[in-house]
Structure formats: structure tokens, C-alpha cells
Here is the input.
Amino acid sequence: MTRRKLIAGNWKMNGDAAALAELDGIAAAAKAAPRVDVAIAVPATLIAPAHARVPGLSIGAEDIHAADKGAHTGCVSAAMVKEAGASFTIVGHSERRADQHETDADVRGKAEAARRNGIAAILCVGETLEQRDAGHAEAVVTAQIAGSLPEGAAADWLSIAYEPVWAIGTGRTPTVGDVAAMHGAIRAKLRALIGGEADKMRLLYGGSVTPDNATELLGASDVDGALVGGASLTAAKFVPIIEAAAKL
Ligand code: PGA
Here is the structure.
């Protein structure tokens, strides 16, 4: 089974109108790497201008609400981000699970809202350092998969991102062996839940991916791409990661 690599960026609460200039170089690199899918999730305020600036690049949201509309002050729906130009959304990022106390059920609801509205989703899972040190990493992550996998989970709209919480923004990464082992465990759990569709689904690694470690991490077995935070903020750092994926 060959799965196209997906290199996705996540700007988090960073970026402004001036930062959109970075997308020019990223869009050019994406065009030059037709075997790789490239996507960038940006703050909600930047989705429309980002899409207008680089219509050929897949722009996404960092989160959506599970409901399509209603009395949810401050939130945005899948339909809203889609209208603004988003073709996908991240759901269940560990920063939201921690800061906004999102549960697996919340995450599943958001992923289902994405599907209902015709946008793709990247569903994030990952253990804390405490959980890893206690030897519970695989149990925690596979339980998150079981709890947050949406109805209708299929590879044509859903990807999974394994992001160990302790590797995000820290400069620390798991060993390639640990990444491969966890991705294998996620794939096995997905097979148990959705059968052969699991072999088509892309599993991304996220957490301190940089131009220096991208080739090694992307080359690990069952790693089908990367979700990149800090290094997605500039073309100078993100483009080499796209190029590393294109060479694999
Ligand atoms: P990082 O973030 O690449 O800055 O570690 C990854 C993420 O949170 O998606």
C-alpha cells in the first residue's frame, strides 16, 4: 500500500497579514512536489486572505465547533471555515485537549462536523511525558483513537496525527523506533475499528519536526507525513521539509 505523503503546517496563534507572504514560497514548493500533499492550518482570521493569496495551496482551520451553527459565542463552524476557503481542519490538537478541556467525544463530534460539511480532518492524538514514563503511551493513544474516531472514518477525508505532547515545541523527539512502534500500534487499532480502510489512512507524526530531522522521521515505517508547528511559520524552514518528503 503506497500512501501519498502529507506535510501539514499548523500556525497555531501566530501569523498576521504580513506573514501571509511566507505562503508564496510554500505554494511554489508544493507545486514543485506533485507527489506530496501540502497543507497549512492558519488562525481563523487568516483563512480567507490565505486562500485568496495562494488558491492552489490547501488552507485549513485549526479547530471547528461540533455544531453547524447556534449560540456558541466565539466559535466557528465547519461551514464557516469552508466558506472562507478552508479545505480541512485540525481536530483534537493536544493544546485544545489541555487548554479547552476537549474530550475524545468532543473531538469525535468535531471530526463528524468536518465530514458532514465536506472538509477533511486531521485528528490528533498523543501521550504526555508522565504517561510515557509510566509505560502507558500506547494504551493512552489507542484509547484516544477508539474514543475520538468519527463515524464514517475513511482515508479520503481523515488523517491521524500522532503528536507526543512532550515533543511539541520542545525540540525533543521520540526515537524513530518509538515513532514506528506507535504508528504500528495506531494502524493495528484502526484495522480493528475500520478494517482494510486503515491501510489507506495516513498517519502523520508531529512534534518538533524540523528540516534536520524530517528525512529520518518521515522515513519511519507507517509514517505518512508530518504535522509541523514552529517550522511551518516560514518558507525557509517548511520548504525543506516538503522537499525531504518529495525525495522519499
Ligand atoms: P511543533 O508543533 O512542530 O512546534 O512541535 C507541532 C504541533 O503542535 O502540531
User: Anything to note?
Assistant: Strands lie at 5-10, 36-41, 58-61, 88-91, 120-125, 158-162, 203-206, 225-228. The first strand starts at residue 5 and ends at 10. The pocket of 2-phosphoglycolic acid is lined by residues 10, 163, 168-169, 206-209, 227-231 (CB under 6 Å).
